[in-house]
UniProtKB/TrEMBL annotation:
Signal peptide: none annotated. This is methylmalonate-semialdehyde dehydrogenase (CoA acylating). GO terms for biological process: L-valine catabolic process; thymine catabolic process. It is an enzyme of class 1 (oxidoreductase). It comes from Eutrema salsugineum. The keyword Oxidoreductase applies. Its EC number is 1.2.1.27. Gene3D superfamilies: Aldehyde Dehydrogenase, Chain A, domain 1, Aldehyde Dehydrogenase, Chain A, domain 2.
Amino acid sequence: PQFLGIRSCWLSMSPEPSTHQTKPPKVQNLIGGSFVDSQASSYLDVINPATQEVVSQVPLTTNEEFKAAVSAAKQAYPSWRNTPITTRQRVMLKFQELIRKNMDKLAMNITTEQGKTLKDAHGDIFRGLEVVEHACGMATLQMGEYVPNVSNGVDTYSLREPLGVCAGICPFNFPAMIPLWMFPVAVTCGNTFVLKPSEKDPGASVILAELAMEAGLPDGVLNIVHGTNDTVNAICDDDDIRAVSFVGSNTAGMHIYARAAAKGKRIQSNMGAKNHGVVLPDANVDATLNALLAAGFGAAGQRCMALSTVVFVGNSKSWEDKLIERAKALKVTCGTEQDADLGPVISKEAKERICRLIQSGVDDGAKLLLDGRNIVVPGYEKGNFIGPTILSGVTPDMECYKEEIFGPVLVCMEANSFDEAIDIINRNKYGNGAAIFTTSGAAARKFQMEIEAGQIGINVPIPVPLPFFSFTGNKASFAGDLNFYGKAGVDFFTQIKTVTQQWKDIPTSVSLAMPTSQ
Ligand code: NAD
């Protein structure tokens, strides 16, 4: 009942922009259990990338409002950490049910603000939902250890305790999944949380927060502040925030890693990628080409685990023609259209950047086998669309190879041998993921053993692990040492306390020597 009073306008609002609406709605912050309008002097437009319509406006939260959010989280912490773990789990149990019930609403919001197809938006939500389901078993995940009788009458045990106020900073490309990687794990461990969604698509975070509160999350346990660099810097600098979870680009990630660490915080920072798919000539042709298309062009290439680089080994290069044919058949249009395969990229600036990187490939001598830059999508002429693009004959020194493109662009390279392909991948600075397509078990095993990337796919194009494992990017794709979700995620949001107890008659003699096992 209390929830109904504080409900923000998002769940009841039609996700389709109304023609009668003169002013787009302002996205609210969530502070201490209430959705509140910001007193910010500046707002940014949240733009539908398929139409350029302004969906809403997001505030650059004031410092006072930010402080109020942290203070609400700090105040909520003592009673939330003392709430039985079973009660905290039950909130997640209800939360996952509410997410399922609101899937369509969430997906429509994601497609409207982010551009990905509705089907892909469902996948975005579902992969986050799985983390919520996993958090329902937190009592087991958070269990401590016990060794009886470490000395006569003395036992030692360890407890995993929450940290206090934690914060999360999100990217634009998975508006539901990434917030759900963060706060469900943090709060079920007993922490309270301040979330900073991406300023480009904040709507899904707001809807999820409404649902979490409806599920029974007490006031102040989850707070949302919108904004950009200043809000992020305030999070890094705040003395009451104990841990920061970040996902996004390397520029922001390394800045946050350094700035928050200078304040003694723990940080997990998932960053950029350049994921390679190695194709051996013995691979199944159809399955491999379909996997390359799905992982290269799905979500218009805006996935950190997109397979953006193909390394054809030996004569598998001859499959390029078929790849082009199939890529041409993909339907590029607004994500709400039934038959859409890929939607627009997030912004005009992103489109310009991607087009510039494609051109740099051409200028550096790569062959543009398929050019999606000048695509016009009927009915959505203003959208930031780029059609599937394929660059061939790319070499490691080219800018289009060195930079993360983050668009629907497949960069194709050639290797004369399998060893050469492995060498190309290992020399790349990123280490998020790599996949191999082969029918040879020996080759697959060699790949698994020798590749320096955190997530390996063997005939699997986007090997993002489910939440009983962790998301394990490495090299320049990750900074920190405790990964997102899975066991490492629980470790990240908890600290260990070790208790040594003695229950026996107190010895009568005094010894000042270091205690040893007796
Ligand atoms: P981004 O770094 O531009 O933004 C991410 C967040 O950081 C946003 O909330 C933004 O407001 C903030 N931010 C941006 N620049 C900042 C700065 N200079 N100082 C302080 N804060 C700043 O990233 P994006 O464009 O939203 O997302 C795309 C990137 O995220 C890609 O590089 C992609 O590979 C990466 N990503 C990685 C993973 C992973 O798990 N490794 C997952 C998804 C996305």
